[in-house]
Design brief:
Number of helices of chain A: 5
Structural class of chain A: alpha/beta
Distance between the termini of chain B: 45 Å
Strand order of the largest sheet of chain B: 1-2
Oligomer: heterodimer
Largest interface: A-B, 14 and 18 residues
Distance between the termini of chain A: 30 Å
Largest sheet of chain A: 5 strands, parallel
Chain lengths: 131, 503
């Protein structure tokens, strides 16, 4: 069976957890892997936007998995919408996101990319927490 | 020495807990706005103007001075870690500083910038304490024609030195002069450029103009270019320097100070020229060794020059009432807001204010060193603030300030107008500084101009009957003509041009 698994990636523990699960799932299903890293681009520095080195490292690690992979970096008004949009465009089988442990109030205040994806994606979404 | 006694007296006043608090507040705010590119000390001071009218003039000036110095420090942090100069005066720092940071020597680059700024700022402030009173004594003797000539010279020098396009500079200057004309003519009571608007006849409030151009203009400009690919910041720990760094740094610090101070003190337009000269000098002296790949001298020299010239600008500001940078222009406007008449007599009529200010500059400098060395990693974190939050805050303070200046809704409308002017200026690459100088120096020069003409009974020759005035006009003319001639000559000789580029 083929298909595409989209991983919402950030260069931190959450992104890594999502990536690890994404790779596992892709192996199980024999699917392609599309890693998306986005930013709102409205701050001078955004730590969740992978730097050139981090990106090179990511590509290297992906190549080692032996899967058909692709990495995409983009600017968007809302990173959650960006991931959902890409998943829709590829007709993805699954979206994997890393989520933070947060209280309902914290969620209300901070908003979140993963929440956006969970609520609006057309395909199943797998939410992973780092150990 | 007399001046030293007065400075000690000022230090005593500046050390009061209240004043110390304002100095600390000023340097923190200054570093904050300095770190963030696009937001400079001039904008911060303009935004704070209406807020500080509740404070005494001394307290607010202590705070403004802290912001001014703090902005210089903050700019270097951004230059080094991000390769994006936070301030126009730290462009040169970015050259070597960012290379050092990429080689893993960010901590040393930040340290030499901070300590160099401290050394230069301290020496510079002491030089101000020495020179300003002397110059003020001379200034009192100067007649209206010469004073007008000084104003003209300051405007010409700042406009022609700054930026690469003189045409743009002069467009901006004349825009400013025009804005400065709006309102009642103080001699005849005629309304000028007021379009039969009684609210315009009351002259434009400088707060509204400055906040509109600096804050609103920048906010609109940023809003128009909101999303950009984030830059890569170089992580940094605690700044420190090794023994060899000290050995390589101290001479550039002193040379930078020696270069920077005169450029600030002569009305010749801010820190861009001396920082450039200092960079070139250090590069020559090092015979190219390590330059281009992160030489510490290339950070130490320009940073010192930068702060020394910031200190130097206090000489014309305090002694003659003539500002040469955007920040000192807004500070001058603040003085007028307190009903204090800036000019040569300032040193004698407001001597408490002046000496406390100078003393708090020294204190602020020391505070900056204490703050910036340990807090550098924290300042770098500021860069992750999303722009919408930042500019929402700025817009809030801008509108509040514009309204609070006179409690007139019309001022908020004017703020929008000047905000659009500011946006257009950024769009077409017009420098902002000449405009602000025009707005502030225009009316100042006009008063002297009319005075001189009244004395001479309307004869134009009255403008040239002082030797000093004639000399100043000649210098101003040379400042315009010489670069044009040199440029023409250089273009005629492409081989020489190439050689210059290589040097």
């Amino acid at each position: 069976m083929t298909g595409t698994i989209v991983v919402a990636y950030t260069p931190d523990a959450f992104g890594e957890a999502a990536l690890a699960t994404g790779v596992e799932e892709a192996r199980l299903r024999g699917a392609d892997l599309l890693v998306v890293n986005g930013t709102r681009g409205d701050a001078l520095v955004d730590e969740s936007f992978a730097s050139r080195e981090e990106l090179a490292d990511l590509r290297h690690r992906l190549a080692e998995t032996g899967l058909a992979t692709e990495v995409r970096q983009a600017l968007a008004a809302d990173v959650g919408d960006l991931v959902v949009e890409i998943a829709r465009e590829r007709d993805a089988a699954l979206v994997v996101v890393g989520v933070r442990r947060r209280s309902p109030v914290g969620k209300l205040l901070m908003g979140s990319v993963s929440q956006r994806i969970l609520l609006t994606a057309d395909c199943p979404v797998l939410a992973v927490k780092p150990d | 020495m007399d001046n030293l006694d007065l400075l000690m007296g000022g230090l005593d006043a500046a050390l009061s807990p209240e004043n110390l608090l304002y100095a600390a507040l000023g340097v923190v705010l200054g570093t904050f706005v300095g770190v963030l590119p696009g937001i400079g000390p001039a904008m911060a001071v303009a935004l704070l103007l209406p807020v500080t009218f509740g404070l005494g003039p001394t307290q607010s000036f202590i705070m403004f001075a802290g912001i001014y110095y703090g902005g210089m420090y903050g700019g270097s942090t951004t230059s080094i870690l991000l390769n994006t100069p936070g301030e126009s005066s730290s462009v040169m720092t970015a050259l070597e500083g960012n290379k050092m940071a990429k080689k893993g020597r960010a901590a040393q680059a930040l340290a030499t910038a901070a300590i160099g700024s401290f050394v230069a700022g301290t020496i510079g402030t002491l030089l101000v304490a020495f020179f300003a009173p002397t110059l003020a004594d001379i200034g009192v003797e100067i007649g209206a024609p010469s004073y007008f000539a000084i104003v003209v010279l300051a405007m010409v020098l700042v406009t022609s030195v700054l930026g690469d396009s003189k045409l743009r500079g002069f467009i901006s200057l004349f825009l400013g002069l025009t804005i400065g004309l709006v309102g009642l003519d103080l001699n005849t009571g005629q309304a000028r450029l007021s379009f039969d608007q009684p609210l315009l006849a009351d002259r434009l409030d400088i707060v509204v103009v400055a906040v509109g151009i600096f804050a609103l203009g920048e906010a609109l400009w940023v809003a128009a270019h909101l999303r950009r690919k984030p830059l890569e910041v170089i992580p940094v720990g605690q700044p420190w320097m090794g023994r060899s760094d000290w050995r390589r740094s101290w001479k550039p610090w002193l040379r930078g100070t020696a270069l920077g101070f005169p450029f600030g003190a002569v009305p010749a337009g801010g820190a861009e020229t001396p920082t450039f000269l200092s960079y070139v000098l250090e590069r020559r002296l090092a015979k190219g060794r390590e330059f281009g790949e992160g030489a510490i001298e290339g950070v130490a020299g320009p940073e010192a020059a930068n702060n020394a010239s910031a200190a130097g600008t206090f000489v014309p500001l305090l002694a003659m009432g003539i500002p040469v940078t955007a920040t000192s222009a807004v500070m001058l406007a603040a003085l007028t807001g307190y009903g204090i008449q800036p000019g040569p007599q300032l040193m004698s009529t407001e001597s408490d204010l002046v000496w406390t200010l100078l003393a708090s500059l020294l204190l602020g400098n020391a505070l900056l060193l204490v703050l910036n060395l340990p807090l550098a990693p924290l300042w770098a974190k500021l860069l992750t603030i999303p722009r919408p939050y930042l500019y929402a805050g700025i817009l809030f303070f801008a509108s509040l300030g514009a309204y609070a200046a006179n409690l007139q809704a019309f001022d908020v409308f004017l703020l929008l107008v000047f905000g659009l002017v500011g946006l257009m200026m950024r769009r077409f690459g017009l420098p902002v500084l000449p405009l602000i100088l025009g707005v502030i120096l225009g009316p100042l020069g006009e008063t002297r101009f009319r005075e001189a003409l009244t004395i001479s009974g309307g004869e134009v020759s009255g403008l040239f009957d002082e030797a000093l005035a004639v000399v100043l006009y000649v210098i101003a003319a040379l400042a315009i003509v010489v670069p044009l001639v040199l440029g023409a000559l250089r273009r005629r000789d492409p081989a020489q041009e190439k050689e210059r580029m290589l040097v």
